Amino acid sequence: MPLTVPRTGAAPGSRPRWWTELPLVAAVYLAYSAGRLLARDDVDAAVGNGLSILRLERDLRIDFETPLNDLFTHHAVIGVPADFVYASLHYLLTPAVLVWLWRRRPAHYRLMRTWLLVSTLMGLIGFTLMPTCPPRLLDAGHGFVDTMAQYASYGWWGGEASAPRGLGGFTNQYAAMPSLHVGWALWCGVALWLYGRTVWAKLGAVVYPLLILIVVMGTANHYFLDGVAGMAVMGVGALLARPALRLADRVRGRRRGAAEQSADAAGQPSSGAAPDASGDDARRDRGTTPVGAGCDTSAREPERIPRQHDGGAGGRPGGGVRAGHARPDGDGADAVPADADDGAAAAAR
After folding, report:
1. Which of 178-187, 212-221, 304-313 has the lowest mean pLDDT?
2. Maximum distance among all Cα pairs of the chain, rounded to whole angstroms
3. Torsions phi, psi for 175 (to 5 deg)
């Protein structure tokens, strides 16, 4: 019988079934989207956190979002494409790379998927613990312009982040720290670099994360430190991916073992039950008979099967011919069988 692997989960190196993967990814994404809404009403704390980040960056002279936002604001030829990139690639390219890994690199898919999901959940914790006002929502005196609102007539989004018009109420505009736009882009870059086999894949692995980092700052959706935090979250997620995968496999194995034990217990007789006769019943169903059935060789009837106790053709050495009864020529043609009367009696029985 060939060895088969249960497909309730996925064996290492195998491709999980899509109908088990899709609900898992969808559940994590819905948790991510819903979790972003938890702190959206804490505006005062979000504004305070945003200003603290901006002051720190300016003290360190790393507020790269300020000159980039000026560039995007004054040049529509740069600002409009950047808005399209911000509003779409985050939601298109990341799932596309995930599906590509599932189809083309199944041996690496589960680890990469686990890395992405663990990092996303960590980002959700960051949104909840540290609501942060993005640069575009600060007071105009800080010098930032919301390019998504400025160029809204060119796209499907309105004045509330990248959400389609009329759906801005379903987003949390104060979930800037960490930037999962940058984090997911880094994940895509690593996947393309490690498992892509063309020069274009390697080029995209380098360009795409850098492009997203520039876009999130130029559109005033994130501070530079938001992007750094997003990369840090992905780094920690990469370290936790293998332990999380082992834990998931261990839990799955225990659940499978418990289910098998329950199934085995359901098929066993209860304590004190009569001896199981299923073996004899099964043999009767198959048309077979237990060895020794109907063959009584006890001491009470030693001759139930005649002449079988001493071997040879007649039950005695010499072919069953009584000593002294063979013809002189020795051919045994007219030899008288030994114990003929016993044989006749047995036949009569």
Report:
1. 304-313
2. 139
3. -105, 60
Q: Residue 5: which region, alpha, beta or left (left: phi > 0; alpha: psi -120 to 50)?
A: beta
| Token pair 């936002």 in the structure block, residue | 69
Rounded (10°) CA dihedral 280, 286, 291, 295: 90
| Model confidence pLDDT, tens digit, residues 243-288 | 998 998 888 788 777 777 777 777 654 444 444 444 444 444 444 4
Give me the amino acid identity at 212: I
The answer to whether 113 and 25 have CB atoms below 8 angstroms apart is: yes
Q: What is the pTM of this model?
A: 0.67
* Residue 326: per-residue pLDDT: 42
Extract the tokens encoding 168: 């801005």
Contact (CB, 8 A) for 158 and 81: no
Q: Decide if 221 contacts 136 (C-beta within 8 A).
A: yes
- The pair of structure tokens assigned to 249 is 């496999």
**CA dist list (Å): 43 to 50, 182, 227, 230, 253:** 10, 23, 21, 22, 45
- SS3 per-residue string spanning the chain: CCCCCCCCCCCCCCCCCHHHHHHHHHHHHHHHHHHCCCCCCCHHHHHHHHHHHHHHHHHHCCCCHHHHHHHHHHCHHHHHHHHHHHHHHHHHHHHHHHHHHHHHCHHHHHHHHHHHHHHHHHHHHHHHHCCECCHHHCCHHHCCCCHHHHCHHHCCECCCCCCECCCHHHCCCCECCCCHHHHHHHHHHHHHHHHCCCHHHHHHHHHHHHHHHHHHHHCCCCCHHHHHHHHHHHHHHHHHHHHHHHHHHHHHHHHHHHHHHHHHHHCCCCCCCCCCCHHHHHHHHCCCCCCCCCCCCCCCCCCCCCCCCCCCCCCCCCCCECCCCCCCCCCCCCCCECCHHHHHHHHHC
pLDDT above 90 coverage of the chain, percent:
44
| Residues constituting the chain | 349
More confident residue, 281 or 6: 281
Beta-bridge partners for 157: 164
Q: How far apart are CA 184 and CA 145, in angstroms?
A: 25
